[in-house]
Amino acid sequence: MKQKRQTAAVLFLAFFFCLAACTRHEVDIKPVEIKPIHITIDVNVKVDKALDDFFGDLDEEAQPE
């Protein structure tokens, strides 16, 4: 009697795992949208420093000693 239960349990588990192995999965790959990126860079600091360097030399020449 005990052997019949074990055999039935093994057959049930084998049947269950066979059904579990028959699953189907689908993965949808959607296209990726790439949008342009607008970047604003403030260069006033570099321009101000360059102008100070340029006109600083002229200011030093114009000052009386």
What is the topology?
Blueprint: H1 2-20, H2 44-62
Helix proportion range: 55-70%
Along the chain, the helix and strand elements come as: HH
**Low confidence ranges:** none
Tell me about the largest β-sheet: none
SS element count, helices: 2
Helix/strand-derived class? mainly alpha
End-to-end CA span: 120 Å
Overall pLDDT metric: 78
Q: Care to count the β-strands?
A: 0
Domain unit count = 1
Percent strand equals: under 5%
The shape, in one word, is rod-shaped
Radius of gyration: 40 Å
What would the keywords be for this entry?
58% helix; mainly alpha; 65 residues
Task: Please tell me about this protein's structure.
The chain contains 2 helices and no strands. With 65 residues, the protein is mainly alpha-helical. It has one domain (2-62). The radius of gyration is 40 Å and the shape is rod-shaped. The N and C termini lie far apart (120 Å).
What is the compact description of this entry?
This protein is mainly alpha-helical and 65 residues long. Helices cover 58% and strands 0% of the residues.
